[in-house]
Amino acid sequence: MERDRADAGTALTLLPRLLFQVLLHVLFEHAVGYALLALKEVEEISLLLPQVEECVLNLGKFHNIVRLVAFCPFASSQVALENANAVSEGVVHEDLRLLLETHLPSKKKKVLLGVGDPKIGAAIQEELGYTCQTGGVIAEILRGVRLHFHNLVKGLTDVSACKAQLGLGHSYSRAKVKFNVNRVDNMIIQSISLLDQLDKDINTFSMRVREWYGYHFPELVKIINDNATYCRLAQFIGNRRELNEEKLEKLEELTMDGAKAKAILDASRSSMGMDISAIDLINIESFSNRVVSLSEYRQSLHTYLRSKMSQVAPSLSALIGEAVGARLIAHAGSLTNLAKYPASTVQILGAEKALFRALKTRGNTPKYGLIFHSTFIGRAAAKNKGRISRYLANKCSIASRIDCFSEVPTSVFGEKLREQVEERLSFYETGIFPRKNLQVMKEAMVQAEEAAAEITRKLEKQEKKRLKKEKKRLAAIALASPENSTSTPEECEEISERPKKKKKQKLQEAPQENGMEEPPVSLAKPKKKKAFSKEELISSDLEETAGSGSLPKRKKSFPKEEPVSDPEEAENRSVPKKKRKFKEELLSSGPEEAASSKSSSSKKKKKLQKLSQGD
Question: What ranges does the record give for the region Disordered, renumbered to this chain (predicted)?
Answer without folding.
Answer: 478-615
